[in-house]
Amino acid sequence: MKKIKLSALDLATVCKGQNTQQAIARSVEAAQYIEELGYERIWFAEHHNMEHIASSATAVLIGHIADKTNHIRIGSGGIMLPNHSPLVIAEQFGTLETLYPGRIDLGLGRAPGTDQVTAMALRRNNLNTAFYFKDDVQALQQYFKNDDPSEKVRAFPGEGLDIPLYILGSSTDSAHLAAELGLPYAFAAHFAPAMLAQASEIYRREFKPSEHLKEPYFIACVNIIGAETTQEAAFLSTSLLNMFAGIITNHRRPLSPPTEQAIYHGIPEIEKAVYSMTACTFTGDQETLTQDIDDFVNRYHVDEVMTTNYIYDNQKRLESFRIIKEALV
């Protein structure tokens, strides 16, 4: 396998029988553990009005995780920028970078990270903000690099700080934008893999070097479940599959223990929908993961693999992080 970076995406998911405080503690433990393993970064995703996800106040959580770790990069995967004023995000992440210099990433997405009613509450009934995503990204860049003291609006802290920006996406729209702006691009193949191939090809073909990045840098976020045996990995993966079934059927539940077979087994419509959402999911022992992920990396020209980890048992979850790391060495 070619040498690529390995990172993790976390939503501070609440497990069955636990609460949000325990979910955040679990995220802290995972971050500390993968830091020891040599993972490059851990990102947290902004979601709202979701009872079993504790990462809604993303910048606050990033600060908490950064304070509990030493050198691993911490960031957003992502901040849903249309939900916020670019100035507020510049100030928040400027503060984080000031407190934890050289460790903060700012991944940006245009989706609301929630349902439309909640998006209206976040955006104060202005749902047109997503159409100004490019303008908002560029405004954010300007706040960080501004050196003109005559500017009427400036970001403190934030101004003059080198905070890497990443464009996130699950379709080809953000691939075009990341290429145009010369920024690294992270694709959400862990739940929306359909346009992965197109997005990767567009990004590399259209990429324009910038002061931020000379060559394309493509991160693919996927679901990976590693275990000592492929059979055990398949068993553990039912927690992930059942979670997606709950999303599809709008019966959301906390992350639950694995089951002998997926709860939707024998219901073709749900089986097809779950398979479509989880096509970029890798399960197996170390040897299996090495081969499968190597094929994936080469096929889609991936520079960094970012893994989710929806495993119910915390010890098994940590073991999976280790097996994934060993598979990619």
From TrEMBL:
Origin: domain of life: Bacteria
One Gene Ontology molecular-function label: oxidoreductase activity, acting on paired donors, with incorporation or reduction of molecular oxygen
SUPFAM superfamilies linked to this entry: Bacterial luciferase-like (SSF51679)
UniProt-listed Pfam families: Bac_luciferase
Domain Luciferase-like, chain residue ranges per copy: 16-294
InterPro entries: Bact_Lucif_Oxidored (IPR050766), CmoO-like (IPR019949), Luciferase-like_dom (IPR011251), Luciferase-like_sf (IPR036661)
GO annotation, cellular component aspect: cytosol
NCBIfam families reported in the protein's UniProt record: oxido_grp_1
Entry-linked PANTHER family: LUCIFERASE-LIKE MONOOXYGENASE
Family label: To bacterial alkanal monooxygenase alpha and beta chains.
Protein name according to UniProt: Luciferase-like monooxygenase
Organism: Sphingobacterium gobiense
